Amino acid sequence: MPITFDAVALGSVLPGNSITFSHTCTGANLLLAVGVTVNGTVGDVISGITYAGSAMTRAATSGSVARTYLYYLIAPTAGANNVVVSASVADTYIRAVSAS
Asked: Which of 33, 42, 45, 54 is least enclosed, having the fewest CB within 10 Å?
C-alpha cells in the first residue's frame, strides 16, 4: 500500500507557553507528525505534545536558540481533535505544523 497524504494544520503563539489547534485525521493506518520551531529561549523548552489527549513521541530535536522538534503518533484518533504543544517557558515564539 502506498503512503498517501491525509491533512495538514498550523498553529503559532507569541509569546506563550502552549498552542492548541485542530487537526483532522481521516482514514486508516495513520501516522501523525508534528514539527515545532521555538525562538527566543535557549534550551529544551518543549515539554510535550498531545493529540486527542494522547501523548506523542519525540523523534528528534536540533538547534540551540532556534530549536526544531519532531514528534509522532502512530494510529491517531480519527476525526477533528486538538494538537496541544506545551512549553516550559512562556516568553517563547512557538510555531507548529501537523501532518497525517
From this structure: 42
The pLDDT of residue 42:
66
pLDDT tens, position by position, 6-55: 888 988 888 888 999 999 999 889 999 999 998 866 678 899 999 999 99
Instruction: Assess contact for 4 and 53: CB atoms under 8 A.
Output: no
pTM over 0.85: yes
Helix (H, G, I), strand (E, B) or coil at 50: strand
Q: Where are the beta strands (DSSP E) in the chain?
A: 8-16, 18-25, 31-39, 46-51, 54-55, 57-62, 67-74, 79-87, 92-99
C-alpha cell belonging to residue 50: 498531545
Strands lying side by side in the sheet with 54-55? 18-25, 79-87, 46-51, 54-55
